[in-house]
Task: structure prediction
Amino acid sequence: MATIIGRAHPLVGVVHLHEKGDRFQEALAVLKRLPVRRYDPATRQWLFPAYLLPRVKERLAELSVDYVESDFPLCGLRRPDVLEREDLKEYQRKGARFLAEAPHGVLLADEMGLGKTVQAILACEAFDADLLVFAPAFLLEKWRQEVERWTGRRVLVFPDEVVSVEAEAVLVSYGQASAGDKGWEAVRRMTLEWRAQRRDRSLCVVFDEVQYLKNRRSRRFKNVLQLVREIEKEAKAPVKRMGLSGTPITRGRPDELLAILEVLGLVDERGNAYSALIRELIFRHLTVWEYNRFAGREVAVGLRPGRDLREFCGLFTLRRTMEEVAGELPDLVRRVVPLPLDEEAFAAVLRKLMRDRRTDDEAEALVEEGLGVHLTTERRALEASKAEHLKEYLRMLAEGGARRIGVFVWHRDVLKEVRKFLEGEGVFRGWRKAFVDGSTSPRARESLVGSLAGSGDPVALAATVGAVNVGMDLDWLEHAVVTGFDWSPATFVQFEGRFRRISSKRSVCVHYLVGKRVELRVLDVLLRKVKALDESFGGFERQARVLAALRRR
Result:
């Protein structure tokens, strides 16, 4: 029997040694020196992370061990002509081909603005499959428009529209999966009914903004995964899973990585030998553990940056940056504006807010970040105390000739102040204005922002960051004024991505109004997390450089 080497699983390499072959003991020693490995006596195979395969092959070749290679074949494209459209860029063809040909679940982690939605749609077309999309509610309308534009398919949004056997695409919001049992049961029943009518057709399941499923204990995660598994169980044709996210790991924690692997179908919840090896790799080799005196035990601090983590994520991830695919794209201009804050005004606002109600979840999250339980309240007070400086800064931009201004805040009470100012200040008289927060419906957001983007008049957009942070193109602005930072790298990267798209024709100047108190601490946390993201998936060097430069200022 020959020695066999290859992949027994998308993430797991395997070697079956011929025990009577030459150099058996030397080859066995090579495997035993691997940092993570397991021997399966049932199959008499050695299992190890697949990213170590090149090293293992190299060592066996040095020992002159003859072996036979085994690997997964790529999926054939049933409609390769789809990827030859003249209106596609070369990187879009490569991304769509990566998604369509992968024989297992994969993650497209392109930087914001490179069109992950279009690439997923074209991959589905090339694979000639139906499309099931899970996405945040405010992105469903954009998905409908893109699917209809690129494919002409009939699209349904569950549970708002009735089941039809003619529908080739179905959209479901993550919010539905988080809803009560009755609401989700209706969506689940409709989706299964749709698939029962079309079970002979292949299916692509797309998890857009896959970081929304990072909590494996959440109702959303459990409901979505259970539904997908039910569909796969009853299917008579292949079901392909695809994840999309520019920031798949938002907090740099091992449980987030494990959640992504389970969503993509690369880790089995039942815990077979392959899944057990992957869990061991993540939690023992790729995680930093430190003793926590409050917990009285070691706790996971985060993923361990390094070559092993990047190579492991590279087994299932494709990521490209703006620089790699569009060097001619104008970069953002960033300005950090330190504010001379009124300490008494800040203290007065802080005292008032400290008397307000805070949630247990908020406090728990803050403690976990190591920032202190009062930091969110302190940041809110800091932003409120910036209000007068913010108004003066907006007045200065308008008087200086700016004609397309966006102002982005973190809290709605500050947005109310900004709205009152823009509607009453003389320099903004005659300007077209729009105001967007979390209560604005997705369709209304698109309409309001679109009306400003296409206007020839001076325009001002005022919004909370959360309301425009995903799915909005804001590269039509000249100036974007932001009242600080958030400690989530996903928020920072996504937000800056709103101003820099593949179709951008101009450079946007982003003005960060910074109060030295809390924001320096937030920047430190943000920089650490972005560096961890870069080590995990690559392609975040620019954001790390930007944050380091902002911190120095």
Remarks:
- The longest helix spans residues 516-537.
